[in-house]
Specification:
Blueprint: H1 6-17, E1 29-33, H2 43-53, E2 58-61, H3 66-71, E3 78-83, H4 88-91, H5 94-104, E4 114-119, H6 129-148, E5 156-158, E6 160-162, E7 166-168, E8 176-177, H7 182-196, E9 200-203, H8 206-209, H9 215-218, E10 226-228, E11 233-235, H10 238-252, E12 260-265, H11 280-294, E13 310-312, H12 348-353, E14 376-379, H13 385-397, H14 417-431, E15 445-448
Parallel strand pairs: 1-2, 1-13, 2-3, 3-4, 4-5, 6-9, 9-12, 12-13
Antiparallel strand pairs: 7-8, 10-11, 14-15
EC number: 3.2.1.39
Organism: Papaver somniferum
Keywords: Disulfide bond, Glycosidase, Hydrolase, Plant defense, Signal
C-alpha cells in the first residue's frame, strides 16, 4: 500500500454507506467470493481491487483457501471462512476441531481479519442425517477451539440456511420452522448463537421465488404491495417478506434477540430464454436496490429501524459452475475485473478508470455525511471494562484499521481497555458523521468538545 493510512481511508468510506446503527449487526455490504472458474484473476489482485476500487469491506469465502487468506492480509477486509459440509462429522470431534483451527486460522490471524467461521452451507436442506446431527456439536467444538486460542470474542461461528428450513412463509407473520428441525436442531442452534452473540444466517433469493406477475415485487420496483392480513402490514418487496418470515419463525421458538444476517442473495445477469427477468438491467436493479435498502435503516415491517449485514452473490461470473446458464452469471464482475453492471459499489475514481461492460446506473452511492463542528466520542466514566472491550471488538471487527491501538502503534499507551476504547469509539463516531446516537454504544459513550489527542496519538 502506498500510504500507511490507506486502510483507514478505505474503511471510513465504507462506514459512511452504513447510515445508522440501531440494533444488532451493522448494515454493511459484503460479497461472496466463489472460485468455481478457470479464468479468475489471482487472489492478490482481487484483494487489492476490492480494497482500492470498491466500497466492499466484507468477503465470504466458501473454503479456507490459504492463498486467498494470505492475499487479504493487512487489507482490513473482514473475512468469513466456510467449512465444507463433508468436514462436519469430523468437527464433531473436539481434537479435530482444534487441529482445524490451528491449521486454518492461527497461521493467518490477525494479519487477515477473519471475523467468522461458517460450518457448512444449507446443511438442513441436504437431508443428510449425519450432517444434520453433527451440525451443532461441530459449531460448539469450533467455538471451544477458538476459545482455547483466545479468539472466541473476535471470531464467531455460525451456519447459513436456505429458506427451505421454513414450512410456512406466506404471509410473513405465519413463518415457522419445519417440524423435526425446530426442536431437534434449530432451538439448540439458536441457543448456541445467542450464547456466543453470533448471528442467524440465511440465504434469501427473491429470484427463485418470483414469477412474471411478481417480478416488480422481487426487484424492489414500484408495485401494489402485498398485505399480511394477520398484522395489517404492507410488504413492498419480496426480500422483506422473506426476512420477516424468518423472524416470525424465530419468534415462535423464542429467539427474537438473535440477529439475522443475509449470507447470500443475488440476481443473475444472463440465463436461459425461459427464465423471467434474467438480464443485466434486472440484476443491477436488484443488487443496487438491495444495497440501498439494507443500509437505509428502514428495516422491514416486523423489524423496523434496522440495518442488515448482507453479502451479495457473487463477486465473479464463474464459468465452471454446473446447472442452467444463470448459475454462471450471478457475478458483479467479469474475470477481468470490469463490472457486469454498475450499482454504486465502485469508488468514483474507479468508475472513471474501469470500463463498465453493461452500464446500468440504477443505484447511486449514499451521499457522504457533511462534516459538523468538531466533537469527539469517549467512554463514560461509569462504563464497565467488559462493555468497553465489546466496543473495541465491534468497531475493529467492522474492518476499521485498529493498528494505532495495537502494540507499537501511536495510541497503544496507555495500555488500558478504556484508552483503547476511546480511540475505537471515536473513530466510529467520526466516520458516521458525528451523530450523537453513533456515540451511544449502549449508553457507554459520551460526546465531548475536549480533544482527547495526546502526543502522536491523534483523534
Amino acid at each position: 500500500m502506498e500510504k500507511p493510512n490507506s486502510v483507514v481511508t478505505a474503511f471510513l468510506l465504507v462506514l459512511l454507506v452504513a447510515v445508522t446503527l440501531l440494533r444488532g449487526v451493522q448494515g454493511t455490504i459484503g460479497v461472496n467470493y466463489g472460485t468455481v472458474a478457470d479464468n479468475l484473476p489471482p487472489p492478490s489482485q482481487v484483494a487489492r481491487f476490492l480494497l482500492e476500487n470498491t466500497i466492499i469491506n466484507r468477503v465470504r469465502l466458501f473454503d479456507a483457501n490459504p492463498f486467498i487468506l494470505q492475499a487479504f492480509a493487512h487489507t482490513g477486509i473482514a473475512i468469513t471462512i466456510t467449512v465444507p459440509n463433508k468436514l462436519i462429522p469430523d468437527l464433531a470431534n473436539l481434537p479435530f476441531a482444534q487441529k482445524w483451527v490451528k491449521a486454518n486460522i492461527l497461521p493467518y490471524y490477525p494479519d487477515t481479519n477473519i471475523i467468522r467461521i461458517l460450518v457448512g452451507n444449507e446443511v438442513l436442506s441436504a437431508a443428510n442425517k449425519q450432517l444434520i446431527g453433527n451440525l451443532v456439536p461441530s459449531m460448539q467444538n469450533l467455538h471451544t477451539a477458538l476459545a482455547g486460542a483466545s479468539l472466541d470474542r473476535r471470531i464467531k461461528v455460525s451456519t447459513p440456511h436456505s429458506l427451505g428450513i421454513l414450512s410456512s412463509s406466506s404471509p410473513p407473520s405465519t413463518g415457522k420452522f419445519r417440524k423435526g428441525y425446530d426442536d431437534a436442531v434449530l432451538k439448540p442452534l439458536l441457543n448456541f448463537l445467542r450464547a456466543t452473540e453470533s448471528p442467524f444466517m440465511i440465504n434469501p433469493y427473491p429470484f427463485f421465488g418470483c414469477s412474471a406477475e411478481t417480478l416488480d415485487y422481487a426487484l424492489f420496483r414500484p408495485n401494489s404491495g402485498v398485505l399480511d392480513e394477520n398484522t395489517q402490514l404492507m410488504y413492498n418487496n419480496m426480500l422483506d417478506a422473506q426476512l420477516d418470515a424468518t423472524f416470525s419463525a424465530m419468534k415462535l421458538v423464542g429467539f427474537t434477540d438473535v440477529d439475522i444476517v443475509i449470507a447470500e442473495t443475488g440476481w443473475p445477469s444472463a440465463g436461459d430464454p425461459s427464465q423471467v427477468g434474467v438480464d443485466a438491467r434486472s440484476a443491477a436493479q436488484y443488487n443496487g436496490n438491495l444495497l440501498r435498502h439494507v443500509t437505509s435503516g428502514i428495516g422491514t415491517p416486523l423489524m423496523p429501524n434496522r440495518t442488515f449485514e448482507a453479502y451479495m452473490f457473487a463477486l465473479f461470473n464463474e464459468n465452471r459452475k454446473p446447472g442452467p446458464v444463470s448459475e454462471r452469471n450471478f457475478g458483479l464482475f467479469q474475470p477481468d475485473l470490469t463490472p457486469v453492471y454498475e450499482i454504486g459499489i465502485l469508488r468514483p475514481t474507479a468508475r472513471t478508470s474501469v470500463p463498465a461492460a453493461n452500464p446500468t446506473p440504477v443505484a447511486s452511492p449514499i451521499n457522504p455525511v457533511p462534516v459538523k463542528s468538531k466533537n469527539w466520542c469517549v467512554p463514560k466514566s461509569s462504563a464497565e471494562q467488559d462493555d468497553l472491550q465489546k466496543n473495541i471488538d465491534y468497531v475493529c471487527g467492522l474492518g476499521v484499521d485498529c493498528r494505532p491501538i495495537q502494540e507499537s502503534g501511536p495510541c497503544f499507551f496507555p495500555d488500558t481497555v478504556r484508552a483503547h476504547a476511546a480511540y475505537a469509539m471515536n473513530m466510529y463516531y467520526q466516520a458516521m458523521g458525528q451523530n450523537t446516537y453513533d456515540c451511544d454504544f449502549k449508553h457507554t459513550g459520551a460526546v465531548t468538545t475536549v480533544d482527547p489527542s495526546y502526543g502522536n496519538c491523534k483523534y
